[in-house]
Amino acid sequence: MIPGANAALTAENPGLSQILVGFGWETIPSRGPQAELVPMAIMCDADGHSLSNDHLVFFNQIVSQDGSVSFVDDRDNEEIDVDLSLVPAEVAKIVFIVYVDPDVRGAGNFSAVRSAYVRVATRDNRELVRFVVPAEDNRTINVMMFGELYRHRDDWKFRALGQGYLTGLRGVAADFRIDL
Amino acid sequence: MALNTSPTRSDVGYLRRRVKPVAAEETPAVQPASAATPEPRQTEPPRPASSGLSLSPSTPPAPAPARTPAPSAGLSLSPSTPPHTPASTPSATPAPVSTGLSLGPSSPAAPAVPPRTSAPAGSLPFPAPGIDEVRELGDDDPVLRLNARESAIGSLIVTGAASAVWEDVELVTGAGTPDGSTTGSPVTTDGNRPLVGFDDSDALVSLRHVRLLRRALFVSRGPEPLGVQIFDGSTVTVSPGDEKRMFVLSLLRIGGVIELRAEPVDRSASDETILKQFSFVLTPFLVTRASRSR
C-alpha cells in the first residue's frame, strides 16, 4: 500500500470480525539512549476526536472499556487486536499511531527507525494488508500515524497514512482532544 | 438515635466526610465502582482500612456497613502482623503495600519472608487524589495516584533528591546519587537508559518501562524540597517536614498506575537506616567479563 490508499476488509472477507494489527520496525543500534517506539490505538468519533481518555489502548492501558480493542505483545514487535463486532457504534474510526517515548534523555524522533510497517491480519495470522512506512527524512518526526480502521457504510476499511507529527504527543492530544 | 440524612456538605471542606453513617438496613445498595468512577478502574470494592494509620492493636477489621475508603498511607504503629492473610481469603486481603514504615514490634507469627508480589491491575486499595488535586504531599495529603497515561509516558522527574533507591519486579535493588555513583545493581532498559537513575541533579524514572518497576524511594538532604514533574507538566512538591521529621518520597507501582507517597522519617536517620525501614536490600552487583578468546 502507499500512503492514502485504502483496502476493504470486511467487504472482501465476509464474516471477518476479529483482526490483529501488527506493528514492526528496526532501530539502528546505539550505545546511547535509543528511540523507543510505542503503538497506540485511538478510538474516534465521526469528528475525529477520541471518545474519551479511556478510549486509548497502549501498553499501559491494555484494553478499551468495551473490550473491542486490546493490546498484545505477540508476533510482531507489538500488536493490537480489534474485535470489529464489539466496536461501539459511535466509534467511526480507530487511528493507530506510533510515538517515540518522550524521555527527557533524548533520542525522541524517528531518525534511527527503519523498515517500519503496519499490517492487518486475521486472528489466525492470515495477512490481509501491509503498509510499509516510507523511509524519509524523519529526524524531526516524533509521532507517526501509521494507519486507521474506519467504517464505510456497514463495512470496515483500512487506510494507510504514514503522516508524521512534529509536535509530539502534545500535538496528538490537541488534535484528538485527549489528556496525555 | 436520629439519623443524619442530610446531604453531604460540599461547601465546607472539613465537613465533607463527617456524615453520620446510616443504619445498615437503610444503606443504599453500593453501585459498582466501575460505573461510578471510570478512572482509575476499580473492579473490586475498596480494601478495609487496614492500610491506614492505626494506633490500636491489630484485630480483624469489622465489617463496614458502608464503603469506608482509607485515605491514609501505609504508616502503622500497631503491632506487626503478617501483611498478607492466607490465600484462602483473598478478598479480605489488604493491599500489599509492604513498604509502609512499621514501628511496631515484630510478631513472632509473622513469616520470615513475606510475599512480595505487586498488586494486580484493577485492585486499587482506595480512592486517591490525582496530581492536579494536590500541591504538596505531606501530613495533609500523604498520597496521590497518577493515571495509566501519566504513569507510562516520558520521564517522571524528581528534583531535589540526594539519593534514589529502586526495586524492580524481580527484586533487583540498587541505589544512586546525583554524582553518578551507584550501589547495589542497576536496572537498564531496552532503550539504554536506567529504569531509575540520575541525570545531572534530577532523578528520572523511565516510564516506558514502568511495568518493570516495583517501587522506588527518593530522599532529600538539602534545603531544596523534593519535587515531581510528569510529562504533561504537572508538578507536586513534598513537604520538607520539621526539625525532627522529614518526608521521603515513596513511589509504588500498583498494576499500571504509580502511587506517590510522602513518608515521614526521622531527620537524623541515615540512608542505610531509611533503607532498612523500607525493607530495601541492595542486590550485590556482579560484573561479568567476556569469555577469553584465544
Describe, in short, the structure shown.
By secondary structure, chain A is mostly beta strands.
Please provide a written account of the structure.
- By secondary structure, chain A is mostly beta strands.
- Chain A has one domain (6-27, 34-176): sav2460 like domains (Lipoxygenase-1, Sandwich), CATH 2.60.60.30.
- Chain A is 5% helix and 43% strand.
- Chain A has one helix and eleven strands.
- The two termini of chain A are 31 Å apart.
- Chain B is mainly β and 294 residues long.
- Chain B is built from two helices and 13 strands; from the N terminus they run αβββββββββββββα.
- Chain B has helices at residues 33-36, 271-277, and strands at 136-137, 143-145, 155-159, 163-168, 173-176, 182-184, 196-199, 202-206, 213-219, 227-229, 235-238, 245-254, 257-266.
- Chain B has a seven-stranded antiparallel sheet, covered by helices on one side.
- Chain B has a domain at 131-277.
- At the A-B interface, loops of A face loops of B.
Features:
heterodimer; A: 180 residues; mainly beta; Lipoxygenase-1; six-stranded antiparallel sheet; five-stranded antiparallel sheet; 1 helix; 5% helix; B: 294 residues; seven-stranded antiparallel sheet; globular
